[in-house]
Amino acid sequence: MFKSNEILKDSIKYLKSHRKETPELDSKILLGFALGLKEKIYLHEELNVSEEKLTNFRKLLEVRVKGKPISRIIGKRFFWKNVFNINDWTLDPRPDSEILIEEILRQNIDKTHDHKILDLGCGSGCLGLSLLGEFPNSSLICVDRCKKAIIQAKQNSENLFFVDRTKFLHANWFDQNWTINLLKMLKIRTKFDIIISNPPYVKANQIQKLQKEVRNYDPMIALNGGDDGCDSYRAIFKNIRNLLSDKGITAIEISDYLIKPLKEIVLKEGLIIKNIVKDYSGKKRVMIIK
Ligand code: GLN
User: Fold this and answer.
1) CA 96 to ligand 1: nearest atom
2) DSSP classification of residue 228
3) What pLDDT does residue 276 have?
4) Mean pLDDT (the chain, rounded)
5) What is the pLDDT of residue 188?
6) Which atom of ligand 1 is nearest to the CA of 214?
7) Structural domain includes residue 123
């Protein structure tokens, strides 16, 4: 048997020597995971570790040193107020995307009402399911063009006990008439009160310049926004009028460098930008549209 504190000391040193930014936290999370614990391990817990578990832990450290993000190794990520399982087909939830939830909560929407929420390109479901947690009487439709992402979002919805309030639809906003099919399949007449989306918005020629952690581990389909980064916005904004109720709002994640073309697309579709919100690093991150 080996002692957990000794193991941690060594692994912290090892990750530091490979210039990992948070060697302590990474080590505690990975050791907890290798030991099958629900949480990270704490220094005050002096646990006995078998040789087999230690070998597993060392394998995880190697994977980390090669650049795999912690969330991808353990298959989950904390977002807003919950832990979300992720898979290779879902974007890793980003703290910056929480701005979108914060901004919706700032819109003075009555929380007790039965709002219809639409999450376009749901991935793990982190945005839509987090909103459901804030609006206890509302319902959510999650749309994604990737079946395996839908499977993951569904599982997260089950884990959060939101099954009764959530529906999932495998659809692609680049297809003609996809909104007509959406409304038909859902058998609903009323439109959506809140539409949220974090679409792929990285310009195709910028993908190679992304951090290794993003480029190698986030799904391309969730990142690549086409030549000017705006392909998905064009497809989504074209249909906002079909989907959004009169008093509804759309909150969509954006990138600072897309502001100019996005304003043109919004104008062309006869929509109005209510406001643009910056993230904590001062970059424009969320656009509210009516
Ligand atoms: N914010 C992500 C990144 O640059 C991009 C996510 C997206 O395209 N929706 O890492």
Assistant:
1) 1
2) T
3) 98
4) 95
5) 67
6) 10
7) yes
**41's tokens:** 């391990």
Q: Is residue 46 domain-shared with residue 107, that is, in the same domain? A: no
Q: Are residues 52 and 94 in the same domain?
A: no
Residue 214 Cβ contacting ligand 1 at under 6 Å: yes
Q: Which domain holds residue 6?
A: 2-66
Domain boundary among 10, 33, 66: 66
Residues 45 and 101 in one domain: no
Classified as helix, coil or strand, 80 is: coil
What is the pLDDT confidence band of residue 45, given thresholds at 50, 70 and 90? confident
Listed residue (195, 199, 164, 163) closest to 179, CA to CA: 195
Q: Give the Å distances, CA to CA, from 286 to 238, 274, 279.
A: 18, 11, 8
Is this model's pTM higher than 0.85 or not?
yes
- Strand 166-170 and strand 139-144: the pairing is parallel
Provide the number of structural domains found in the chain.
Answer: 2
> What's the one-letter identity of residue 125?
G
Q: How far is it, in rounded angstroms, from Cα 211 to Cα 163? A: 35
Residue 85: helix, strand or coil by DSSP? Answer: strand
Length of the chain: 290
The residue behind tokens 């969509």 is 252
Between the CA of 128 and the centroid of ligand 1 the distance, in Å, is 17
